[in-house]
Amino acid sequence: MAGFLLIFLLVWGGILGAWLLLARSARTAGADKIASRVLGVPEKKKKARSQSAHAPLISVEDHTTGKWVLRLMRRFQLHDRLQRLIEQAGLKWKVARLVHLCLALFLAAFWLGWLLLPGHYRAAAFLLGAAAGCLPLLYVASKRRARLRKFEEQFPDSLEFMARSMRAGHAFSVSLEMLHREFQEPLAGEFRRAFEEHNLGMPLDVALQKLGQRVPSLDVHFFVSAVLLQKRTGGNLAEILDKLAYVIRERFKLRGKIRAISAHGRMTGLALTMIPIGVAAMMFVVNPEYLTFFVKEEVGNLMLLGAIVLQIIGYMIIRKIVNIEV
User: Fold this and answer.
1) What CA–CA distance (Å, rounded) separates 133 from 108?
2) Peptide bond before 186: cis, by omega within 30 degrees of 0?
């Protein structure tokens, strides 16, 4: 089995490397041609001019890279979700690259686990591979969570800045343009994209709704709803933005108090989850024969599976109790 996995990894890596080399050589096939017959311009400069002349205003995803993976993702309706997750994390990755990385880590961890683990514990190599394959997704999710948290911290100040700029006589679209000059990422990039979409002809309500889709925050949805409602009914938008910034700051204060109160429950849930794992690891080192019952016997396998499922359910229940949305 280990030899088969090694051969599969070598073949898969060879095919992927050959495909990358062929794609790169195909893109640079005419790079060494000397001159043009009419203008005497090098072929490389000629291609660069033609590409810059016909360059699209909006970048389009390359659907030729990993087309089989993309087709599989679209069949299971996962492509748009992964693309949105990568975009919200602020990464420049492609969906095919993320899936290839997950697959490579899964195969590498499964192969190492199959070689290093004893014979009775080789079934755990699949769990090890699954855990390694989830690492890129966890990395993207953590980047997304950190980026959204930083955006929410900057958002009240940006609302007050927009209110001051409109009181000074600027239009709402001009205030959007000024935000990406005065603030840092990720807030500057999101509002710059909204302004550029509106500047290129997209209606303001559509640009703001797309901003709310890219930033899945309740505060941003409040902001978009307030601006669209003021556009339809009228009113003092600067005063609305000031009050919205005040409400968001008060929500932050209340959220901090709730997190301080529920910290004991979170620590309890983490301790109750880690104690069985720590005891199992100690027994594996001290008395490995004691744990062979859960691996060799069918009843032991069922008991181990039931214990894992109940442990996960208990942890999720505790998280649901202490996770209070404000």
Assistant:
1) 9
2) yes
Q: Is 154 exposed, middle or buried (0-12, 13-18, 19+ CB in 10 A)?
A: middle
Question: Rounded to two decimals, what is the model's pTM?
Answer: 0.64
Mean pLDDT of 126-144: 86
C-alpha–C-alpha distance, residues 147 and 90, integer Å: 7
Query: pLDDT tens digits for 156-178?
Result: 888 888 888 888 888 887 888 88
Closest among 86, 96, 103, 104 to 142, alpha carbons compared = 86
CA 182 – CA 190 distance, rounded (Å): 13
Q: How confident is the model at residue 41 (pLDDT cuts 50, 70, 90)?
A: very low
Give the separation between CA 239 and CA 162, rounded to whole angstroms.
10
Tokens of 45: 């400069």
Angstrom distances, CA of residue 27 to CA of 3, 44, 146, 288, 305: 36, 12, 37, 57, 51
Provide the 8-state DSSP code for 27.
H
CA–CA gap between residue 72 and residue 77 (Å, rounded) = 9
DSSP state of 57: S
- Asked if 174 and 185 count as a contact pair (C-beta separation under 8 A), the reply is no
Q: Which amino acid is at 211?
A: L
